[in-house]
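Re-run with default settings, no changes from the original entry. Doing this only to confirm the output is reproducible before filing.
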Amino acid sequence: MGCIKNENATTAKTGQGGSDFNPWDAMEPRAPGKTPKELQNGAPVKQHDVAPEGVYRPDYNILTPHMRSPEYVQMSTAAAITLGVTKGRMYRCSCTRCLNLLLTYPEGCRANCAYCGLARHREAERDYADRNFIRVDWPAVPLEVIVDKVAADGENSPFHRMCISMITHPRSDEDTVAVLKTWTSRIDPETIPVSILSNPTTMGREDVKRLKDLGADIFTVALDAATPELFDRTRGKGVQSPHKWGKYWEVLEDARDIFGPEKFGVHLIAGMGETEYEMLEVVQRVVDMGGHNHMFSFFPEEGSLMDHLPATPRDQWRRVQLGRYLIDYCGMKIEQMRFDDAGRVSDYGMPAAELEDIIQAGVAFRTSGCPGKEAEDVSACDRPYGDSPPSDIASYPFQPDKKDIRKIRKQLGIPNRLV
């Protein structure tokens, strides 16, 4: 089993009209269609009611078993390979150091985010457990099997972190608690810390506090969109989805108060129609709150309402990727940077020698996320090829080598050394 999902979409060398960024006007999602009643809310899975047997690998040619969290969770293909519940190999890296656990139900996620492979509108074509997400399939595994395997490895586990990914479902809050309790009853959170990728739409302050009290280490909010208008277009009423910009920031502020500095953050997706200034403005806002930013490059997920749109041009991506790192880890402020009339970064406001060292080090171009055991600025959640094919890597799941750095420098428009 390979870790890369075959897709027709490719990365974009340029945006609309040859531009080096994806402008707002070019990134309009399709309107969601109407799902027949007999296909809504996981009806086919519940009607057939096939009992699950062990690990389920997405297979469109058989009836999908009736699986529910907390007894079952899904995990990324990379995590499944690392855990040893499926076979496969990874291009230039040893799979992943983060065990991503995704809640699962026949009804699926009831949100309808335009860029997401798990979106509600897909129930018209594919059962929830069979849907691709961040470019790969997500096998479903009994939670008991997962905990047994990780507990048996003890301090020798290949995982540096575990993350529970919530979805928009009536059971999501309670089942996240159940998964967390099961995990911490067998596995010391000091050995493998736990992150929560939350669903603010169904949560209140007490829910956030409960997760902290039960041993969660880091709390993140998948804001994804950089502006209220873009959020509404891709995550809210623009696509018949329940999420609200204000609610997401409200829960993020709760996380700041409860989890404390450096223990909360947001996910952001670059290249969905925002300007580079708007993206880095959000990055700065989160850092000013005491949090961190985990940024990914937009890639047209197969089956999503944005699968017809161009991936983020590498020029745009590298500029904001570097800008995020400088703000998150190097003490830079957006006020020190300069932007052109189109909102593109034109100057990072940093001495050339310092900027040169950071570019050459390469860490800024690795996947961003919750830290593992290697360094504070190196993510455990390396999501191999989650936002690009390996032929044109956006977020490097490994340390870029000299050849990679040369390619990155060309994409940045800085092919030669600054000093």
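Residues 1-8 have pLDDT under 50 and may be disordered. The longest strand covers residues 218-224.
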